Amino acid sequence: MSGGVLYRPGDSPVHRIPPQVKLLAAFAAVLGVVATPREAFWAFGIDLFVVLAVWSVAGVPVGWFARRAVIEAPFVLLAVVLPFVSGGPRVDVLGVAVSQDGLLAGWNILAKGTLGVLIALTLAATTQPRDLVLGLQRLRAPAWFVTIATLMLRYVDVIAGELRRTRIARISRGDDPRFLWQAGAVARGAGTLFLRSYERGERVHRAMLARGWAGHMPAGPAAPVGALRWVAGGSPALVIATAWAVAAWPV
Amino acid sequence: MTASVAMHLSDGVLDASTSVLFGAVAVAWLAVAAARGRIDVDDRTAPLAGLLAAFLFAMQLLNFPVLPGVSGHLYGGALAAILLGPWVGALCLSVVVVIQALLFADGGLTALGANMTNMALLGTAVGFAVALAARGLARRSRAGLLAVAFLAGLVSTVAASAGFVVEYAIGGQADVSLGGLAGVVIGVHAVIGIGEGVITALAVGAIVRVRPDLIYLVRTSETRELVAA
Amino acid sequence: MGGGRVAGVSALDVRGLTYRYPDGTAVLHGIDLHVEPGERVAVLGPNGAGKTTFVLHLNGVLTGTGHIEVAGLPLSPDTMREIRRRVGVVFQDPDDQLFMPTVADDVAFGPANFGVTEPELGERVRAALSAVGMAEHADRSPMHLSEGQRRRVALATVLASDPELLVLDEPSANLEPVARRELAEVLLSLDRTMLMVTHDLPYALQLCPRAVLIDNGVVVADGPTRDLLADADLLAAHRLELPWGFVPQP
């Protein structure tokens, strides 16, 4: 798909890391962040530093990430509410008594949720959608997953385009839904869209059969990834994991 | 329907071990769904599922008016289950959830297992269970089918949010009253679920008028032969 | 490239092909068609005559009863894979045909399925894309191509498997005049056996010396395209019509 994708074309060392390495590194990094004890404030500082370092190598401006990180907004709400609704001993913050445990829990969600979304954005900004699927394929994702994901990314724009055209046709004839109960035409449009998608699926399947489809997507050539590239690509995750290990080490 | 807290969980809401646990739950469930949906047996199922996943994805991009100035979008658990069945429906939606997390950072990477469990798996399974239980009503008349689709949409939304409550109880961060949390989360999603139910019912109603043979829930074994030609 | 032609073996031999939909409706009532290597044959007929259904039999996507042989190889479940390599079908809507993320991925799909591996695979992709004049677009998404470019890439996706028989379903549909002419030039440059299903009678005349007319599931006329198009009664009897103002030169 092309519309709304976060990928920012570039040729930085971060862009060039093989997608399977980047995927594993991103998952490992976020898991490291999530596993870090919430009181280890310094560790989150290191994590943020690592993320900033990756951005500077990737050549993606900080402002771009900041704008897109608002996707996390609903969770900020949970983080803000927790100090007031949680139990346990209370502390005074700006004259308001809040739960100490809730305050830490709110901080925990805010810090980890933010770092998590920033790491995921880094992955999305530096990896083409098709390479993400290719990375999953090389990481042995099941054949059905690769097929569904490949076709979904190819056709979501085509289907969204059909959706737009039916919407314009509807508005051209005076439709103006503002309440849910006026949205009947939209939902019936959804029914039509399902039928078109199904029929296109049948035609695509025929076109695939005609070119020898036997149940799995050809993976294409994959140059073997040397140990050095794994280490280089995984180094940010390694630093985050080290910070976690030190923070979680029982003293 | 709306961007809500219990859908698309972010990182840090659940602890690391719970995140990993639900990752394993999702993977195991998908393995069962792939086997029961026979997706690797019939070379036609996966390409069709790909187009239908694109349809569900496009539907999620589309905003419906709820009130003036307030819009939400379908998440499609019950719709997928009624149209595609609980197995292929779950596979399609799980791909949607994974791609949204990877391409749009929508939902945390460590929360992916929990998000798949709630939205792709619980939503379709419960939606289908409701529809199956009321299948007699669905086959009786068009109004019956619409009522069943509405109910499935409503209950599947509530079930997905209940999944979040269970996950929070296992690995949530703060010591909050679970009863209170459940009340708020499930209450909000019951309201959201009404919208989901209305849209599900109207969409199913539009399809049954033209191609009833494509609706997994209502098609009989003979028509399935015909479609699989 | 250039499919290996065996002397004395016809490119396509169809005898007594019949087909019913699963609901019992008969679509094809015994089609006979014989195509020699190097021939370019237009398949004409009104909507619903069974043209597309016929095409889908040539590579076994649909299976009716009767005999089909491609370059000497009879179609059967055992030979299905090789038949699908030998018959390259270009479908009507390039959006159905181009299902991979990039042009190069799509062109590689067929040969990769038929067992071609690198480095030959890359060679095939490059050769097929240059044959249709799309080599510089290899890494683009099909979403970002014009309709004419998509049609040419769709052609490349089947050329890459080096087929013995090229089957085109409505190749000129939805093309602007320039793209339509460019596609004709590409098709004429290929020097391949070709079967072209079309409503575009001038296009049939330009590209195919021979035409067959299918209606109600049987071949009702078979001869030089010029003669068929000159027979106004025949055309009228089968809901075919030359565009206004178009007079085939004698």
Main β-sheet, spatial strand arrangement of chain A? 1-2
- Radius of gyration of chain A, rounded? 23 Å
What is the helix content of chain A? 55-70%
Q: Figure out the total of helices of chain C.
A: 10
- Multimeric state: heterotrimer
Largest interface: A-B, 94 and 78 residues
Explain this structure.
The complex is a heterotrimer of chains A (251), B (229) and C (250). Helix content of chain A is 70%, strand content 3%. By secondary structure, chain A is mostly helical. Chain A has two domains: 13-135 and 225-248, no CATH class; 141-210, no CATH class. Chain A has a two-stranded antiparallel sheet. In chain A, helix 2 packs across helix 7. The longest helix of chain A has 30 residues, at 143-172. Chain B is mostly helical and 229 residues long. Helices cover 71% and strands 3% of the residues of chain B. In chain B, strand 1 (64-67) and strand 2 form a beta hairpin. The termini of chain B are far apart. With 250 residues, chain C is an alpha/beta fold. Chain C has helices at 51-58, 80-86, 94-97, 103-113, 120-131, 147-159, 177-190, 201-207, 225-230, 232-237, and strands at 12-20, 26-35, 40-44, 65-70, 73-74, 87-90, 165-169, 193-197, 210-215, 218-224. In chain C, the strands form two sheets. In chain C, strands 6-7-8-3-9-10 form a six-stranded mixed beta sheet, sandwiched between helices. In chain C, strands 2-1-4-5 form a four-stranded antiparallel beta sheet, with helices on one face. In chain C, a hairpin with a 2-residue loop joins strand 9 and strand 10. In chain C, helix 4 packs across helix 5 (120-131), helix 4 packs parallel to helix 6 and helix 5 packs across helix 6 (147-159). The interface between A and B is large, with 94 and 78 residues.
